[in-house]
Amino acid sequence: MTERTLVLVKPDGVKRGLIGKIISRFEDIGLKIVGMKLIWADEKFAEKHYELDDEWAKNVFNKTKTAAEKEGKKFEYDDHLKFGKQIQKWNMNFLREGPVIAMVLEGAHSVEIVRKIVGHTEPRQAIPGTIRADFASLESYNVANSKERVVRNLIHASDSVENAEREISLWFKKNELFDYKTVHQDHF
Ligand code: ADP
Fold first, then answer.
1. CATH for 2-172, among 3.30.70.20, 3.10.450.50, 3.30.70.141, 3.30.360.10?
2. Do 139 and 123 touch, CB atoms closer than 8 A?
3. Nearest atom of ligand 1 to the alpha carbon of 67
4. What is the pLDDT of residues 37-66, one digit of tens each?
């Protein structure tokens, strides 16, 4: 049940001075920070993080298509891989715009719970109370795509236990992760 997940405060969150507020959301529910650092990724590293896989491209394509159709707009792309490549490139550029906070959070169901607290990929659709809604609601696919960039949604969070393991080993060495007991562990 106890899982570890990777969370990044992306360059927009760091530049906007939201690191503390974002970390508080995770600390408040008792998640344990077992690793944390400030790091400025280069191109090679950004590409490793934003690995292009078919399933991810399909998912990004479908989410964006659904949002366009909800507004009665025609979605211009028909090739999910081509669309995914474009988003991957924009993601790589964005990640390199400044330093990011990388952290590993540990707790029961942490992958699922962190995704819930973070909220929808498009902040405009995120539910109030989630981090993306509370700090970035004005950001949308429309705004981002008209500027040829990704949506600035403050956070990356692993989307599965399997991806969390891959991402944690990319961002952290074993000796940068620490084992200790929090007060919450006596309660949960
Ligand atoms: P999430 O970060 O919610 O897991 P995805 O893995 O689907 O979302 O996408 C990775 C990142 O790519 C998102 O956080 C967002 O910044 C960006 N992104 C995804 N789809 C689009 C899009 N249609 N337009 C602009 N940026 C996008």
1. 3.30.70.141
2. yes
3. 23
4. 999 999 999 999 999 999 999 999 999 999
